[in-house]
Amino acid sequence: MYFITISEMLGTKGQQIAREVAKFLNYSYYGEEEVLKAAGEMGFFKDVQKLDEKGPPFFEKFFSEKPKVYLDRLQSVIFEIAKRGDAVFFGKGSQLLLNSFGCALHVFVTGSSERRIQQIMQEKGVKREIAEKWVHRSDQEKKGFLRFAFDEDWLNLNLYDLILNTDKLSIDSAAKMIIDAAKSDEIKACGIDSMKLLGKLSLHRKVESALREGGVMDQHVFFTVEDEDSVTLYGFVYTPDEKEATGRIVKGIKGVKRVVNDLTVFTGSRSEV
Questions:
Q1: Model pTM greater than 0.85?
Q2: What DSSP state is assigned to residue 68?
Q3: Is the torsion defined by CA of 40, 42, 43, 48 positive or negative?
Q4: 98 lies in a domain?
C-alpha cells in the first residue's frame, strides 16, 4: 500500500497533476469531491464541508469547540480512506496527517506569483486585479488552515519530499517526476501494522470529536484507543450520571464495539479540583 500527497499553491496546476498521477498508477484519487463523499458515508458530510482549507473565523476559533470537532472529523475521514489502499491525496492537510508513514511520498507544487496570476486569469476568465486577489486569498487561507490544524507553516519545505516548480514543467513532466519518485526503492510499502495504526488514528479522532461535541472533553476526562474498535475511558467526573453519559457517547460511535469505562466519580466539590 502506497500514498502520495500533493499540495499546491493556487495556479500551479497541482490538481491536474495529482489526477494524472493517480490515473497512471491506477491509484484512488481523493480531492475535494471524493473526500466529501467519504465524509458523507461516515456521517460527517456537513462537518467536513464547513471546514474548508482555511482557518476558522477568529471568534469561533477561540470561543467555540465546533472548529475542533470539524477538524477531528476531517482527519478521521482521511485516515479511514487511507485504509482502503493505494491513493493520491490532494490537499486537506494530508501531507501532515500521513507524514509518519514510510509508504507516503509528499509533493509540493509551486510557481512564481506572476505565472500563477496568469494561470488564474486564463482558467477563470477574470481580470488581473481579481486574479491577484484570488491568489493572495488562497495563500492566506491555506496558511491559516495549516496553522490552525497542525500549528505548522504550510511553506515549511521539510514537510515535502519533492518540490516542483511548474513555471518550467508541463503537467505531464511534473507527473512523470512524481511517478518516478513514487516507484523508487526508498518508498517502502505499508504493511498490516500501518493499516491497524490508521484504524486507531481514525477512531481516536472520532472519539475526540464526539466527546467535544458532547461537552465532556475537558481536562479531567481522558481516553485511549486500545484497538480499532476498543476504547478505554479514564479520569474523573462529578456524578454517576456524567460517567454513564460519557460512556454512552463513546458507545454510540460507529465502529466502536467495546468500551471500558474506568472513569472515577469524584466525591468532593468542584471547587476542590
A1: yes
A2: H
A3: negative
A4: yes
Question: What CATH number did the domain enclosing 218 receive?
Answer: 3.30.1340
Cα(257)–Cα(240) distance, integer angstroms = 22
Residue 221 pairs in a beta bridge with 235
Q: State pLDDT tens for residues 142-172.
A: 999 999 889 999 999 999 999 999 999 999 9
* Residue found by looking up cell 488552515 in the block: 145
Nearest to 115 by CA among 163, 174, 165: 165
Tally the domains of the chain: 2
Residues in the chain: 273
The torsion region of residue 125 among left (phi > 0), alpha (psi -120 to 50) and beta comes to left
Nearest to 87, CA basis, from 19, 165, 162: 19
Based on the fold, state whether residues 152 and 50 are members of the same structural domain. yes
Range of the domain at 266: 214-272
**pLDDT tens readout for residues 207-231:** 999 999 988 877 689 999 988 899 9
